[in-house]
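Project outcomes to date are best conveyed with an example. Our students and postdoctoral researchers have been running inverse folding experiments weekly, and each run begins with a structure described purely in tokens. The record below, which covers 406 residues, was selected by the lab manager from last quarter's runs and is presented without edits.
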């Protein structure tokens, strides 16, 4: 008699119709789960605020609310419980997987009431606990006091969880006491059917960047921890033929400072700030680039020390477009050097960055083609949405097998 398969329910509080980081990541992940494992996994997502952008009838849709509302959050919890109860009674799940939102109440409530194993997706920092260096507000302190024991209970209760960074593993272990062996590193992913190679010359002409012979790109929020000042300061130091420019696709609190640095460096005509662009337009800008940079680096406060982390959502998009990548030299980015798909540099060292850019631009065409090929293969095999869905599914199944063996 064939062994009965486990049935999973996956719950996220993030609206997958919104084009922000969590919304996009969850959208691609949930779609990949439905495509590959729809007969074994049921996904519960908030009813979309923008259904014209994304609506998938394969999902169960929960009451959409502002999650910070003390008035409406209990209504949301009741709705989630009702949907889960219906699924449980009809034999649709015996394993619970949750991406934690602003509170841990959903996984604690459902795993306790239904007595099912709990698994957690994409554990991250929770702002109130000041996992990254920085100040914490009085509201954060109040939230911390109320919610910390519940977060700790949910995280310790889980059978297995994934996170995006080595630093997160250490911080989660230090903050919540979850054993490191229960934490698996799974990076952010990319939809390779949306981000793919394109014609550089055609796209430069389309978006008005044909004045450059070479272009370094960045796509994302403009914040200080992105270290984009390094790109601006490197422009005058790059040694190659032709005119080199940089395009920053996105907006953010650090834009004014970056514009000031470009003026001080005398390169305002070589740095393009696009402002906010629609998500669907981002690939066009990446296609126009020769190289893409994500120098994101943040310091996690762990006990009495710090641990540098990089958890890029953008690098997978760059690789899927066939672009060599520039990133900061931290353990999370060592795969770039090992896979030979770009270069890693020290934070703050614009001279080293300029040398890396020069090397990549001056490579023989055959070597450039080889890097593009390796980048595309890495994107498909390691960080595509379908590859990550498969990795998580295997992780969950192995965890279930471990429970059964015990």
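After processing, the design step wrote out the following sequence:
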């Amino acid at each position: 008699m064939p062994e009965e398969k486990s049935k999973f329910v996956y719950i996220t509080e993030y609206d997958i119709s919104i084009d922000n980081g969590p919304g996009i990541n969850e959208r691609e992940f949930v779609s990949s789960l439905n495509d590959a494992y729809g007969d074994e996994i049921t996904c519960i997502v908030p009813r979309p605020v923008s259904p014209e952008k994304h609506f998938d009838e394969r999902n169960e849709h929960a009451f959409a609310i502002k999650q910070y509302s003390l008035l409406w959050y209990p209504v949301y919890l009741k709705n989630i419980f009702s949907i889960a109860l219906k699924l449980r009674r009809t034999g649709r799940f015996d394993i619970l997987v949750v991406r934690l939102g602003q509170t841990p109440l959903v996984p604690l409530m459902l795993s306790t009431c239904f007595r099912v194993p709990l698994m957690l997706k994409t554990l991250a920092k929770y702002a109130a606990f000041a996992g990254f260096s920085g100040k914490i507000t009085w509201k954060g302190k109040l939230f911390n006091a109320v919610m910390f024991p519940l977060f700790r209970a949910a995280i310790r209760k889980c059978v297995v969880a994934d996170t995006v960074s080595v630093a997160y593993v250490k911080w989660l272990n230090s903050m919540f006491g979850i054993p490191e062996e229960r934490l698996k590193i799974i990076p952010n992913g990319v939809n390779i059917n949306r981000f793919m190679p394109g014609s550089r010359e055609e796209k430069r002409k389309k978006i008005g960047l044909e004045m450059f012979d070479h272009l370094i790109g960045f796509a994302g929020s403009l914040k200080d921890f992105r270290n984009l000042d390094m790109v601006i300061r490197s422009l005058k130091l790059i040694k190659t033929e032709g005119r080199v420019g940089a395009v920053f696709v996105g907006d953010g609190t650090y834009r004014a400072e970056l514009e000031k640095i470009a003026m001080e460096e005398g390169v305002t005509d070589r740095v393009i700030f696009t402002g906010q662009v629609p998500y669907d337009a981002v690939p066009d800008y990446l296609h126009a680039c020769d190289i893409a940079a994500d120098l994101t680096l943040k310091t996690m406060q762990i006990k009495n020390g710090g641990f540098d982390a990089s958890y890029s959502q953008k690098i997978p998009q760059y690789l899927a477009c066939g672009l060599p990548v520039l990133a900061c030299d931290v353990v999370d980015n060592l795969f770039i050097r090992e896979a030979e798909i770009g270069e890693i540099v020290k934070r703050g060292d614009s001279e080293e960055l300029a040398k890396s850019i020069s090397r990549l631009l001056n490579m023989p065409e055959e070597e450039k083609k080889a890097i593009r090929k390796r980048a595309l293969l890495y994107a498909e095999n390691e960080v595509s949405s379908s590859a990550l869905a498969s990795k998580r599914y295997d992780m969950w199944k192995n965890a279930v097998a471990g429970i059964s063996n015990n």
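The first helix runs from residue 21 to 37. The chain has two domains: 8-189+384-405, 200-380. The training component of this project remains on track.
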